Amino acid sequence: MTLPRSAADVLADHVLFEIEAIDRMYLNLYQPRLQHGAGIASFFVGHRGNRFASSALMAPMTAAFTADIGHFIAARGLDLVRFSKGQRKDDVTRERLAAAAAGSRGLVPEQVLYVGVAQEKQKVFRTSKRRNPVTGATYPWLVPGSGVVNQYYCYCVDEDFGPVCVKFSSYFPYTGRLIINGNEYAKRQAAKAGIGFAPLDNAFAAIDDVAAVQAICDGLDEDKITALAAKWLNILPHPFTTEDTAAGYSYALSVLQAEFSLTQTLDAPVTGRIFFEQVIRDNLDLGRPDQVSLIFDRKIVRKGKRATPGRFRTRVITDGVTPSLHVDYKHSKIKQYHKLGKALRTETTINDTTDFGVAKGLSHLPELKEIGFTASRRLLDVQRIHPHCRDADHRPANSGAARRHLRLPAAAPRFHQPQPAHPPRAPAGAHSRGHDQRADQLRPAAAPRPRPHPAHPAQLPLPGHHGRHPAGTVPDPPHPAAPDPRPGRPHRSQPTSPLPAPGRRPRLRRRHRRPHPPGQASRLTPTPSYKQKRPANAKLDSPRT
C-alpha cells in the first residue's frame, strides 16, 4: 500500500533553489506622545506655550504642511497625481518606475518618482465644548474621532531598498506609513554586489550564488529599516520643526502588516502546475481548527468565553487562470500559489502581531520572522499528496475476488447472474442458513425466495385524527358494548357506509360530532371565577338541555 507523502518530501527532489525573505512590510509612522488627549494638550500648552489646547491650533500647522508639500513638488519638478476611488496605486507606480531612466548597472538611481494624493478615513482629534459643573464656565476638550482627510503618498527609489513609499496624513497628529519590499531590497543589494540573477516579479527566477542572496535577505533587520525612515524624513517635508524633534516629538515605527515569503523554484514548470492543483484537491481541509493549530503552532479553543476568534476555512481563489490556496488564523493568513509557472510561492501575512502574543514595535521583528517562516514550513509538512491510480489495471496481482468466509450469509444474486437449474443441497447435519457450510463448497447457494407478506388490513384513523385514508374517509367502527352515556334513551348505532369503489374519488364528509360526556363543562358554559363561590348543589349545564 502506498502512503500519502507530505508536500515537503515531494518537493525535495524537484526544487532547484529556495529563498526565504521579508516580502512587503507596512509600517506605522507615528508620534508616540501625540496618540491621546493629554499628550496633545502637553504639546500645545507645555511645549509651544499656548494658553489652552484646541483644534484651532492645528489648522495653522496643516496649512503650513500643505504649503511645504506644494513647494517641494514645484522645486523638484514632480507630478501631483490625484488618485481616484478604486484606482490601484501600485499600477501607477509600476508604469512610472518602468519609464524612469536606469543607471549604468541597470538600476534606477535614487529619486522621488512622484507625489500622489487621496482622501482616506483616519483617526483625528476634535475639540468639544464642556461646562464646569461648579462654576458653569465652558472650556474646550480634545476628543478622538474619525474624519476623511487628504493623504500624501511620496513614491521614491532608495539606493539600498529600491522602491519605497512614505505616506503622510494632512491632519493632526500627522501619522504616516512606510512601505518597503524585502525582495526588492535583495535584488538591489545583489546587483550592487555583482551577483548574477534573473529577476522575477517580486522574486528570483535564477541565481548564481544562492547562499549569498539568502545572507542578504537574512541581513534585513530593524536597524536598517529605522535608518531608512530617518533618511527620508530628512528629505521629505513633514509638519514638525527641528525644535519639536529636539523636544522629543519624533516619529517611531511599528508593524502594521508583515509578509514573509518562501519561494521554491521548480525544475519542471509544467509539472509544477499539475503538482499544485493536486495539492489543492488533496488539502481542502487545511482550514479546520486541528490543521490550523498544526500550521501556526497555536492552541485553538472552539467554545467558551476564550474561544479563538476568526473563521476557520479553506479558500481557493482564482485570479485569471492562477489558483491560490488561502488558510486563515484570526487576522493572519497563509497564501500559496504557483508563481508565473516557475515557482511555488508560500506567503505568511501577519496583520496583527498580537495574534501571536508579540508587541507591534519594530524591535520585535526577529520574533515575527521566526513565526512567519516557521508557519510556511509547517504548511508544507501538513499538506499531504495522495497517490491516485490512473487505471484499474494497476492493481496488485493478489487483488482478485476474496474468498467468502464460512458462517457468513450469502449475498443475494445480482440481476445479471443466472439462477442455477439445480442448486446444491445441503449435507446432512448442515444448518439451513441459505448457504452450504462445507469447506470444499465455495460457490454461494441461491438466495431463498422471498416469502409473501400477508395482506395487512387498512389501518383506521384514531378518533379525532385529521388524516385521510388513502381510499377516502373511513368512519369509526360502532361500539355495541359501550354503555349509553344518557340512561333512558335507546342507543343509536352509527350506520357504516362501505368504502367507495376503486377508481372513484371519495366524497368528503364532515367529521361526526360525538355526544358530550356528562360531568364535564360545556365549551359554551363560562367557567366560574375563582373569587365567586359556587353553591354545593350547583350542576353544570348539559349540552343538550
Describe this structure in words.
The protein is α+β, with helices and mostly antiparallel strands and 545 residues long. Among the domains are: 205 residues, no CATH class; 143 residues, no CATH class. The chain has eleven helices and 15 strands. The strands form three sheets. Strands 3-4-5-6-7-2-10-14-13-12-11 form an eleven-stranded mixed beta sheet, with helices on both faces. β3, α4 and β4 form a beta-alpha-beta unit. α10 crosses α11. It is globular.
Question: In percent, how much strand structure appears in the residues?
Answer: 15-25%
Spatial extent as radius of gyration: 42 Å
Number of strand elements: 15
Continuous helix count: 11
Spell out the helices and strands N to C: EHEHHEHEEEEHEEHHHEHHEEEEHE
Helix content percent band: 10-25%
- Ranges where pLDDT stays below 50 over 5 or more residues in a row are 389-417, 429-443, 540-545
The largest beta-sheet arranges its strands as 3-4-5-6-7-2-10-14-13-12-11
Mean pLDDT: 79
Distance between the termini: 88 Å
Q: Report on the biggest sheet.
A: 11 strands, mixed
Principal-axis shape equals: globular
Class computed from helices, strands and strand pairing: alpha+beta
Jot down its keywords:
alpha+beta, globular, 545 residues, eleven-stranded mixed beta sheet, two-stranded antiparallel ribbon, disordered C terminus
Please outline what is shown here.
This protein has 545 residues and is α+β, with helices and mostly antiparallel strands. Helix content is 23%, strand content 24%.
Task: Give the SSE layout.
Blueprint: E1 5-6, H1 7-11, E2 15-30, H2 37-47, H3 58-76, E3 80-82, H4 89-99, E4 111-131, E5 138-158, E6 162-169, E7 176-181, H5 182-193, E8 197-200, E9 203-207, H6 210-218, H7 222-235, H8 242-246, E10 252-266, H9 269-282, H10 289-296, E11 314-319, E12 322-329, E13 332-339, E14 343-350, H11 365-382, E15 384-385
Parallel strand pairs: 3-4
Antiparallel strand pairs: 1-15, 2-7, 2-10, 4-5, 5-6, 6-7, 8-9, 10-14, 11-12, 12-13, 13-14
Helix pairs in contact: 5-6, 10-11
